[in-house]
Inverse folding.
């Protein structure tokens, strides 16, 4: 077998809050247990590992002690190597992040993590550049597409990856909502980063026509087009996301994945800029804004790019927006409008209407922007 | 003796011919040969020479060509066995190949067309007046069906027909000195609708389907159709089977902006005798003769994408057209050397046997017959639509109640996938176990877990019932034994194929020579 080092992280308190009506577990795990919640994450991790039983003799599981993964793996007879230096009494995000870092240091071929959006955030904090990850859904709310559809599906995809039947990865968003706001019926997911997960093709190639370019090729084509069309003397704000990162790659410039960078005449003017900083730099100059759809639900403004304050957006102007996204990302929305939630209702209304979203070097899709 | 029971519709005992027939090169034995032709007589040898030295040096092979060496009987066995391992049109109910319009192609037309195999396109026109007349008359039938003014049969397939339309738009704009750079298409139109104008240098703008109605939104179209727009190209109905009843408003607006409108009628089965390109405001259209006109599908050719234009655009069509001067049919090259003409998209004037079979089919149907084709195809599809939606877990998007499916439908098994993890591609492989074809022509994958079915006018009610019953049986299996469905096929020639290398050209072996180089 090509890949035999499997990382496993279980967030033992993930999902506790949901079963007792707490809408999440952040800061309320003790209360959930008091209300009678039964831990689910370990069982769900075991459900995923059960799909790997045919490969058990060829896999070594790198994991945390006891409830952090060891229990789930040993219950199915897997050989384990545990992070002895990481205690298993605490179950906070620091433990998850530390375990993630340790697993990466062991050279894991794939790291499975059982939890929810908060767990994904913690894993993302210490994810190395070469790791491959996959979430086993066990949390109350899961907005991040780094999670498989079910524990079983996670196990099946892990098996395909470890046996080399799936060889490619794609970066997916790590999103999380503020659970305090969520408990007040306000959903505000934020983009915290990206994790590479195994790319399982949902569909085989259709044989009637040439295979469409994959998402990475589409991003490269988009980046090429925008870079080619850049005008001298114009400021280009490059927003957050992997699609817009392709522009910076074409220009050979460093990029802030979840921040806003500023470019002029092919040179980096500023990195990871925020509201007033941006305004100070572009004031009195022509400026365009390159941005993509973030946040999983079709948000164009107000999720993952709060740096683009209403004042910045007004300064740039709607006519100077260059919106780009892969067809795959747009298709997930199935015609639903792109959303503007800048916190300024008048601006949201002004940004609304039809727009062209660049999807390749010479093609675009018409989308509607609506207030979020 | 027991009475034979014929009540079961699902062929649960089906098993395809199953063995791994080697590639013909693997059967080759040095020195084995089919027939041994006699040496030429002395007199012939003296006249012709060795048969090789008469060829120009540049045409002579430096090395012997690597052909397999087999006896005639082994060759026959090989190909007959391969033919038994197929799920072709004559051995299964071709409902599952939605978007392809897999209607029955009468064998009599196939037999008749073989009489043309001895013709050559370079023959003197006086010796081929019959086939030229058939080209000319088929052109006139196409004009009647579409409302267009003139057709060319030169394009060698549907995509080349689309390319011809994009070329006509480019030539027309060039002739007017216009430098428009954009083409508008729709997400659900065939990918070649966008690829053809892209090949002519246009930027493509796609319209999405409205989430409620499934057809493009006129306001979205107006937002992007400007004086920079050269053309608008789309299929109608699209592959969802939904017909945009407001299409004339789109073409009217496009004309207002100075653009030309191209109608992808590769599949015209929904509109024969019902609606025409002309009245919908299109400036040109094309038909895939192997779809609507039953010629039949040729697995990559030879085919014909008959392309027609409205009055005033004839001069941009590729040459030659076939004309009649009152006494003789002749090749009309009048537009071949026009400064802004398309001139040619392919050699000669079209694949004669394909146009001939179209002619035969149209003649045998007559105008009322063509109308009946559409009525029956739409009836069959709507009967099937109702039966399909009765299957638990199967549904369809765009059910606003105002827009019925026409000749095909794209369903979704999203719920079955969510419940069981069985995907539409798993169903494709499992259906083979019942001798049924279930195609994957759902591109682009806009809807989740799509199923695209198109009965056409051909199948009987019993055929449709059998197909739906088989699907229902498989969908039930998804809940009862999902792993069995996911590991299908179990009764086919080959089992699951590792597709992981499909995206890696370095691993492709597209010929025996390449296979030997990469894998031996």
């Amino acid at each position: 077998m090509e890949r035999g080092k499997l990382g496993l992280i279980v967030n033992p308190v993930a999902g506790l809050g949901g079963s007792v009506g707490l809408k999440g577990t952040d800061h309320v795990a003790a209360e959930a247990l008091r209300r009678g919640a039964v831990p689910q994450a370990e069982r769900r991790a075991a459900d995923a590992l059960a799909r790997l039983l045919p490969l058990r003799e060829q896999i070594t599981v790198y994991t945390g002690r006891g409830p952090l993964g060891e229990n789930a793996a040993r219950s199915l007879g897997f050989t384990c190597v545990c992070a002895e230096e990481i205690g298993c009494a605490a179950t906070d995000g620091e433990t998850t992040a530390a375990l993630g870092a340790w697993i990466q240091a062991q050279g894991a071929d794939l790291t499975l993590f059982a939890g929810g959006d908060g767990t994904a955030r913690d894993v993302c904090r210490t994810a190395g550049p070469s790791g491959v990850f996959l979430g086993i859904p066990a949390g109350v709310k899961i907005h991040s597409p780094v999670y498989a559809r079910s524990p079983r599906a996670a196990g099946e995809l892990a098996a395909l990856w470890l046996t080399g039947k799936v060889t490619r990865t794609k970066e997916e968003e790590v999103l999380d909502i503020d659970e305090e706001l969520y408990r007040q019926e306000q959903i505000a997911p934020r983009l915290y980063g990206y994790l590479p997960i195994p790319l399982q093709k949902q569909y085989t190639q259709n044989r009637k026509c040439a295979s469409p370019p994959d998402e990475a090729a589409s991003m490269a084509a988009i980046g090429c087009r925008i870079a080619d069309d850049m005008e001298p003397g114009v400021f280009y704000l490059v927003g957050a996301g992997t699609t817009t990162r392709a522009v910076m790659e074409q220009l050979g410039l460093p990029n802030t994945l979840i921040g806003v960078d500023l470019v002029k005449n092919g040179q980096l003017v500023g990195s990871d800029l925020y509201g007033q900083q941006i305004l100070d730099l572009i004031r009195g100059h022509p400026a365009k804004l390159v941005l993509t759809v973030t946040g999983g639900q079709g948000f164009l403004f107000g999720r993952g790019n709060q740096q683009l304050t209403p004042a910045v957006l007004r300064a740039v102007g709607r006519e100077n927006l260059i919106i780009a996204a892969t067809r795959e990302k747009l298709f997930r929305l199935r015609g639903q409008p792109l959303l503007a939630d800048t916190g300024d209702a008048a601006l949201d209304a002004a940004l609304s209407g039809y727009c062209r979203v660049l999807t390749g070097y010479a093609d675009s899709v018409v989308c509607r922007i609506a207030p979020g | 003796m027991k009475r034979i029971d014929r009540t079961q519709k699902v062929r649960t005992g089906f098993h395809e011919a199953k063995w791994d027939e080697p590639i013909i090169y693997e059967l080759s034995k040095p020195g084995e040969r089919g027939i041994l032709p006699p040496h030429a007589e002395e007199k012939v040898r003296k006249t012709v020479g060795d048969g090789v030295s008469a060829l120009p040096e540049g045409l002579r092979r430096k090395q012997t060509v690597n052909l397999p060496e087999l006896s005639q009987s082994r060759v026959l066995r090989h190909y007959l066995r391969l033919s038994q391992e197929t799920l072709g049109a004559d051995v299964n109910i071709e409902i599952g190949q939605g978007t392809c319009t897999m209607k029955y192609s009468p064998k009599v037309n196939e037999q008749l067309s073989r009489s043309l195999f001895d013709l050559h396109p370079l023959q003197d026109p006086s010796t081929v007046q019959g086939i030229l007349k058939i080209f000319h008359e088929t052109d006139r039938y196409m004009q009647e069906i579409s409302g267009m003014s003139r057709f060319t049969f030169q394009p060698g397939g549907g995509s080349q027909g689309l390319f011809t339309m994009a070329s006509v738009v480019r030539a027309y704009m060039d002739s007017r000195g216009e430098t428009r750079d954009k083409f508008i298409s729709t997400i659900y139109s065939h990918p070649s609708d966008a690829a053809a104008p892209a090949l002519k240098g246009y930027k493509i703008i796609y319209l999405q389907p409205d989430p409620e109605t499934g057809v493009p939104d006129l306001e979205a179209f107006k937002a992007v159709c400007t004086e920079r727009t050269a053309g608008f190209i789309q299929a109608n109905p699209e592959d969802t089977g939904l017909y945009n009843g407001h299409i004339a408003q789109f073409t009217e607006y496009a004309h207002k902006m100075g653009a030309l409108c191209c109608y992808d009628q590769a599949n015209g089965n929904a509109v024969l005798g019902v609606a025409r390109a002309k009245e919908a405001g299109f400036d040109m259209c094309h038909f895939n003769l192997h779809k609507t006109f039953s010629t039949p599908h040729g697995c990559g050719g030879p085919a014909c994408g008959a392309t027609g234009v409205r009055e005033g655009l004839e001069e941009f069509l590729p040459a030659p057209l076939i004309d009649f001067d009152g006494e003789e049919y002749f090749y009309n090259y009048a537009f071949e050397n026009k400064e802004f003409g398309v001139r040619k998209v392919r050699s000669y004037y079209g694949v004669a046997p394909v146009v001939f079979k179209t002619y035969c089919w149209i003649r045998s149907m007559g105008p009322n017959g063509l109308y009946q084709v559409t009525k029956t195809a739409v009836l069959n599809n709507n009967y099937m639509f109702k039966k399909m939606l009765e299957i638990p877990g199967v549904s369809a998007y765009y059910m606003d109640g105002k827009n019925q499916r026409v000749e095909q439908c794209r369903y979704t098994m999203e719920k079955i996938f969510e419940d069981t993890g069985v995907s539409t591609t798993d169903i494709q492989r499992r259906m083979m176990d019942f001798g049924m074809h279930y195609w994957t022509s759902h591109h682009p994958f806009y809807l989740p877990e799509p199923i695209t079915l198109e009965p056409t006018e051909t199948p009987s009610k019993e055929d449709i019932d059998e197909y739906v019953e088989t699907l229902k049986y498989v969908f039930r299996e998804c809940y009862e034994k999902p792993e069995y469905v996911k590991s299908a096929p179990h009764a086919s020639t080959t089992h699951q194929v590792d597709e992981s290398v499909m995206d890696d050209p370095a691993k492709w072996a597209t010929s025996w020579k390449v296979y030997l180089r990469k894998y031996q």
About this structure: The longest strand of chain B covers residues 229-235. Chain B touches chain A through 43 residues (CB under 8 Å). Residues 509 and 517 of chain B are 9 Å apart (CA to CA).
